[in-house]
Specification:
By secondary structure, this protein is mostly beta strands. It has a single domain, classed as Tachylectin-2, Chain A. About 0% of the residues lie in helices and about 45% in strands. It has no helices and 26 strands. A hairpin with a 5-residue loop joins strand 17 and strand 18.
């Protein structure tokens, strides 16, 4: 594609509120909320830590017990009002637009009708210390590839989070569309395909209709700045990490990850990338650090050059009856392009505020 995408200008927006609150499983909070379009017109939504039970009394945090102590590293199952905690879960969404909120969905459950993890812990991983958190995914020839981050929970307290952790790395899992049961892809017996210091592919995946390649976006924190990198491969080679090429500072592609260069920065970790017909180019959406602003960038190619961020929506967190013991955390901003209308002139975003802990849906109308 030559030239530049149309200038990104916001005309209007509205917050449609927290989604999936009305569910039959007593699900009381989840984050992540990556959506993966499926060929049958539905979408697989992939979530991170998911809580089952009842919400604590008004004014009491999910993340602090009744004595005011942070929940810490341990699995929250059976603690307080939480019956179960799952590292990651999913649902099938049948809504084709977000204009009325997301209503027509079915959670992926086990044989007992209980929510189940899509990528379970394995081996010596322990629910008190290990988490497998969701990233994006893609369907190729009836198989769904899911990306994940593995984190290790840390003991003690943090002034920023009541649940401190460190990233171990990222990987991929694959399963059939029919069964929705996933196994991790391994390299040399290890399911961590990219280490903590490397970009965590794939926070977003894009099958480009122009060249038929899959583009994978990975983020990593470097010198206190979160940077985004890009890789590409053929769809049939997605499970073969040695086939990946990475975009370099010389604007060429290399199989050597150490040559990769950041294409833009300042997302907490999550983002989305899609081709937007209305804009005539590619649209990346992400939270801008932890400012509460959700921004968009445009580019003529999947790798860029990317524009400076334009604010699509600014989150106004609800007033609290008493101050939080940690800063207000607004994160996980991303677009769900399969819900868009008028060729992408009207788009739908989600974000999560950590204390409320439900994905909010936002409708944005572009010029």
């Amino acid at each position: 594609m030559s030239g530049a995408a149309r200038r990104l200008v916001v005309m209007a927006g509205r917050d449609l509120g927290p989604q999936f609150v009305g569910n039959p499983h007593r699900m009381i909070g989840q984050d992540g909320a990556f959506s993966i379009p499926l060929r049958d017109g539905t979408a697989l939504w992939f979530f991170g830590d998911t809580l089952i039970g009842t919400r604590p009394p008004a004014g009491q945090s999910l993340w602090y017990d009744s004595a005011g102590q942070p929940v810490g590293h341990a699995d929250m199952s059976g603690r307080g009002t939480i019956r179960r905690m799952l590292n990651n879960t999913g649902l099938i969404l049948r809504d084709r637009t977000g204009r009325h909120g997301l209503r027509n969905f079915t959670y992926i459950c086990d044989e007992h009708g209980e929510l189940r993890t899509l990528i379970p812990l394995q081996g010596d991983e322990h629910p008190d210390w290990d988490r497998i958190w969701c990233q994006h995914g893609i369907e190729i020839d009836g198989m769904i590839y899911l990306s994940f981050i593995k984190v290790r929970m840390l003991p003690g307290n943090s002034p920023l989070l009541p649940v401190p952790f460190e990233i171990v790395g990222s990987g991929l899992a694959v399963g059939s569309r029919d069964e929705l049961r996933f196994r991790r892809i391994e390299r040399n017996g290890d399911s961590i395909l990219w280490r903590a210091s490397e970009p965590h592919f794939a926070t977003a995946m894009l099958l480009d209709q122009r060249d038929g390649l899959v583009y994978l976006y990975g983020t990593v924190k470097q010198n206190d700045v979160q940077n985004c990198y890009i890789a590409r491969t053929r769809p049939a080679s997605l499970a073969d990490i040695s086939s990946y090429q990475y975009f370099t500072a010389e604007q060429r592609w290399s199989h050597d990850l150490s040559q990769a260069a950041a294409i833009f920065s300042r997302m907490p970790s999550e983002l989305s990338v899609s081709f937007n017909r209305h804009l005539g180019g590619y649209l990346a959406v992400h939270s801008l650090d932890l400012t509460g602003r959700i921004v968009g960038r445009t580019a003529p190619n999947p790798w860029g050059p990317w524009s400076e961020p334009v604010v699509l929506w600014t989150v106004q967190p609800p007033p609290r009856p008493k101050p939080l013991p940690y800063p207000t955390l607004i994160y996980a901003g991303k677009e769900h392009p399969e819900l868009s209308e008028q060729n992408g002139r009207i788009i739908y975003l989600t974000y999560v505020e950590f204390e409320e802990y439900f994905p909010h849906l936002v409708e944005v109308e572009l010029e």
